[in-house]
Amino acid sequence: MPMTKSGKLRLDNVRVSFPRLFEADENGKYSVSLIIDPSSPDLELAKRYIEKKAKDKWGEKASTKLKQAYASGNVVLRSGDTKDIDKYPEYEGMMTMNAYSKLKPPVYKDGQPVTDPSEIYSGCYCNVVVDFWCQDDANRKGVNGVLGGVMFKKDGERLGGGGNLATAADFDLEDDFEEVI
Q1: C-alpha to C-alpha distance for 146 and 102, rounded to whole angstroms
Q2: Among 32, 42, 45, 87, which one is most buried in terms of CB atoms within 10 A?
Q3: What is the pTM of this model?
Q4: How many CB atoms lie within 10 A of CB 61?
Q5: Per the domain annotation, does 31 fall within a domain?
Q6: Quick one: DSSP state of residue 169?
């Protein structure tokens, strides 16, 4: 997991879930949920980067504040087992991270900007640039993820029962439909 030239983190080959990259939600945010294999070398570096951000924000109190944030589920990186595994089995045994942005993130495939939302789907694998910031106010005390950008890496099995879209061959009909069923 390399650091970008601007000091952000790039998580490589992570599985994307719930991508909202082309149109903001009702709160004006773009977002993505990342499913990270616990054996990924990026995971340990992400934890260290979170610790660094905590030290930058809280100084000597960082260790205590971070422990409290983890205990209350207020750290961007968490166990996928906290999800409803019956509904989202792909999270079981994995780590997960949600990242948000009020700005539309750049999205790339093969080095070119992506404009078709169907190219980045739940289940594909991407390299994702994230940053972290510590929140310490009346609303929340924890570490949040900022979405910096997404680059498609490879196809994966679609999540959530999205299935496959029709191809041209699907429009070729049998002569006698009654005999087929």
Answers
A1: 9
A2: 32
A3: 0.83
A4: 13
A5: yes
A6: G
